[in-house]
Design the sequence.
């Protein structure tokens, strides 16, 4: 089973709302593994399929805690313009956020898991009904700017920014920023006159994808970020020498978990 993040700030949830015998202070600091939650009498349901899924609220459940992230941003493409060879920026990661919702037993809720961003495209947003868990920003093509981290710091972590792509010169693209858990993706290596792609931003669940190298007359596409590194950013593309078409990597898809006290 997956590990889920600890709450960075207390969630104001009264234990009675979950019909739980455990203390309110414990509920306010829910974290650790799903196995731990199960041992405490909580039920967890994970959603890892991209797209919309209906979820019917179980009997006697009136409040749920939902944690989710959107898809990671796609990496930027490499370009050669104005005499400069520019690696693409890495895609930004989506933040993992917790939020409490009031629900009605037997009512149908709409769960949407966001897709990973394609090259230069933001990651798809995840939803619990209309509440949005924003996807990561895309990497910028042929520029020194990387994609920004998605989501917000509200009851959660901020996704890492993608690393920057680099203009011509013997400097590698930079790594993507770290989240609270993992390092960003590795930067693409460069040689003289080549632009390496930036690494993708790291999410809570895993590192971003590596940027593409641009060295020795060889250029590479940015690497894809994949599950179970939910929400991580795709790597930016690297370019070497003459103009060529190299694309950024895909961001990883989003993730959503529902936690409630058992029926």
Sequence:
């Amino acid at each position: 089973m997956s590990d889920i993040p600890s709450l960075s700030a207390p969630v104001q949830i009264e234990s009675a709302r979950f019909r739980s015998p455990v203390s309110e202070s414990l509920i306010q600091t829910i974290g650790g593994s799903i196995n731990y939650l199960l041992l405490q009498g909580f039920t967890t349901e994970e959603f890892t399929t991209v797209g919309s899924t209906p979820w019917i609220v179980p009997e006697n459940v009136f409040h749920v805690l939902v944690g989710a992230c959107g898809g990671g941003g796609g990496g930027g493409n490499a370009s050669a313009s104005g005499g400069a060879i520019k690696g693409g920026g890495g895609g930004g990661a989506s933040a993992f956020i917790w939020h409490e919702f009031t629900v009605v037993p037997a009512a149908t809720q709409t769960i949407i898991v966001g897709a990973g961003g394609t090259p230069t495209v933001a990651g798809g947003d995840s939803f619990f009904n209309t509440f949005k868990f924003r996807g990561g920003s895309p990497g910028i093509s042929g520029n020194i700017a990387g994609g920004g981290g998605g989501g917000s710091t509200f009851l959660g972590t901020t996704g890492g920014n993608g690393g920057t792509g680099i203009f011509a010169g013997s400097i590698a693209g930079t790594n993507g920023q770290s989240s609270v858990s993992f390092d960003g993706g590795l930067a693409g290596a460069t040689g003289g006159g080549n632009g390496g792609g930036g690494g993708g931003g790291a999410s809570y669940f895993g590192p971003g994808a590596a940027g593409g190298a641009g060295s020795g007359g060889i250029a590479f596409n940015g690497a894809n970020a994949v599950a179970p590194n939910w929400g991580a950013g795709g790597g930016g593309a690297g370019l070497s020498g003459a103009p060529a078409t190299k694309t950024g990597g895909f961001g990883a898809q989003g993730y959503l978990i529902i936690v409630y006290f058992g029926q």
Notes: The longest helix spans residues 34-39. The two ends are 21 Å apart (CA to CA). Confidence is low (pLDDT under 50) at residues 1-33.
